[in-house]
Each structure stands twice: as structure tokens, then as C-alpha cells.
Automatic annotation (TrEMBL):
GO terms for molecular function: ATP binding; protein kinase activity. It comes from the Eukaryota. InterPro entries: Kinase-like_dom_sf, Meiotic_Drive_Suppr_Kinase, Prot_kinase_dom. It comes from Mycena albidolilacea. PANTHER family: SERINE/THREONINE-PROTEIN KINASE YRZF-RELATED, SERINE_THREONINE-PROTEIN KINASE YRZF-RELATED. Gene3D superfamilies: Transferase(Phosphotransferase) domain 1. This is Protein kinase domain-containing protein.
Length: 182
């Protein structure tokens, strides 16, 4: 399945991504919060619930699949957005990932974050690793905070699954501890 996906991402991606959204669900998209070469990110509402919609161009479908695999694995983790579905037009020229809106990106440097935030971020990433996911692109911009101040890890477009974490020797956790000065 993995090999087939990498050879024919556009033809098989949506079988893998099922279940897709029901056509009965109403999605409204408003603000564009990030415009990119392979994907652009919007805020919106799905049946009244606040969501983030990430629209992938076809050349970014590998990233979309990585996100879907990771989010499905992380579905019970409160410090990552809940996966809600994927939708695409019939020609599959693009596809959109929909996840729960967990707040706005931290506009900060690692060093400027207070200790409580740094500890919360580290714990959140340890939990992601414990669930078998290696994030692959841990930057401050990929951390968000909701209105209650809770932090979440987002953007799993570079993630790999089946990570067997050895905390003290794990390269991503080592880098993170260094960045967070922990
Ligand atoms: Zn690890």
C-alpha cells in the first residue's frame, strides 16, 4: 500500500483518506492564514464548529497523506487537532484536509517562551512521539495556542509514523530540549 501510494498518489490518496466528509456537511471558509507553494491554510466553520482547512495542490499530496496518517494515530491526544476529514473535487486537482481549530500560531522565538510554555510544549511532543509519530518539522510556527491558553502541536506534513521513541537518544526530542533550554 505504501509503495503504491508513492507511485500513484493522486489516484489512491483518497481511498486511503476515507472516510471523507459527507456532502451533507456545510463548510464555510473565510480567512487565509498561510499561503504556500504546496498548500494554503484557511480558517472556517464545519457545521458551526471552528476548523482549519488546509488546501493541498497535487504536488503536495505526499504531505497530505503524512498528515492524515499522523492525525488518525493522534486522535485521542488533546494537544493535537482532531482530524475531521478530507474532501476534493472529482478531478482531484487539489484536496483539502480539515482539522479542529486549536488556535493561533505562537509568534515567538523559542528563547522568548516562558518556562511553563516550554514545559507544556515538551510534554506535548513527548506524547506525540509516544503515539509513534515523529513530527519532522518542529518549529515555533507549528505550535498554536487556544483562547484558554492551551498549547497544541500542528502541521504533520513531514511526519512519519511507527516511530519507536528512545527519549534520551531521540534526535527530535534532543533538538527540542536544546531549543527549549530544558
Ligand atoms: Zn522520539
Amino acid at each position: 500500500m505504501e509503495a503504491a501510494l508513492s507511485r500513484h498518489p493522486s489516484s489512491l490518496a483518497f481511498d486511503y483518506c476515507s472516510p471523507s466528509l459527507s456532502t451533507a456537511q456545510l463548510l464555510f471558509v473565510d480567512t487565509c492564514i498561510q499561503f504556500g507553494h504546496q498548500a494554503s491554510v484557511y480558517r472556517g466553520r464545519l457545521d458551526g464548529r471552528r476548523v482549519v482547512v488546509k488546501v493541498y495542490e497535487e504536488l503536495g499530496f505526499d504531505g497530505l497523506l503524512r498528515e492524515v496518517r499522523a492525525y488518525k494515530r493522534l486522535v485521542s491526544l488533546p494537544t493535537t487537532p482532531k482530524y475531521l476529514g478530507v474532501f476534493a473535487p472529482s478531478d482531484k486537482a487539489w484536496a483539502a484536509l480539515i482539522v479542529e481549530d486549536k488556535g493561533t500560531s505562537l509568534a515567538s522565538d523559542w528563547a522568548a517562551l516562558p518556562l511553563a510554555d516550554r514545559e507544556a510544549i515538551y510534554k506535548a511532543v513527548v506524547d506525540v512521539h509516544a503515539a509513534g509519530i515523529y513530527h519532522g518539522d518542529l518549529e515555533v510556527r507549528n505550535l498554536v495556542r487556544d483562547e484558554e491558553g492551551r498549547l497544541s502541536v500542528v502541521d504533520f506534513g513531514h511526519a512519519t509514523v511507527d516511530h519507536a521513541c528512545e527519549q534520551d537518544a531521540c534526535p527530535e526530542l534532543l533538538d527540542l530540549r536544546q531549543n527549549l533550554d530544558l
